[in-house]
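Design request, tokens follow.
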């Protein structure tokens, strides 16, 4: 693990994080980004289901968000780590915290939406498979444009 992961703080998101989260999400997903108000609602109504990773100087280097569906399933909406910060454990730290939050909500069935082209994301979720029941829903550029 590189020095970046050692200097990153992962914490529950607050309302003050919404603008940075939304900016990062739009940069990564374009028109398929989660709308800013939804992040605010998730933070306000579902404590612990939105997490941020920030460096010591406050730069956002990752975000994870989930929600609890009315049918009792948990959804991992995103574990967004910009490409330049991948591979150092930031996504793992974010997903670990999000899965812990699902435990608190007593959610055991989880579906994750992941980028079909992001091999690192696929490996990350696969590494949790022996411990958790996580179904994967792959989202790709072609599925977004149909």
């Amino acid at each position: 693990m590189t020095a970046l992961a050692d200097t990153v703080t992962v914490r529950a998101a607050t309302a003050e994080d919404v603008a940075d989260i939304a900016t990062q999400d739009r940069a990564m997903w374009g028109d398929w980004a989660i709308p800013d108000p939804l992040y605010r609602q998730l933070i306000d109504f579902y404590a612990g289901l939105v997490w941020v990773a920030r460096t010591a100087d406050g730069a956002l280097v990752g975000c994870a968000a989930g929600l609890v569906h009315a049918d009792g399933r948990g959804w991992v909406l995103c574990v967004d780590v910009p490409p330049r910060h991948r591979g150092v454990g930031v996504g793992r730290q974010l997903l670990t915290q999000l899965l812990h939050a699902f435990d608190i909500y007593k959610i055991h069935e989880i579906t994750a939406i992941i980028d079909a082209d992001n091999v690192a994301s696929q490996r990350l979720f696969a590494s949790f498979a022996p411990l958790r029941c996580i179904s994967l829903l792959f989202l790709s550029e072609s599925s977004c444009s149909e």
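Comment from the thread starter after seeing the answer: thanks! The mean pLDDT is 85.
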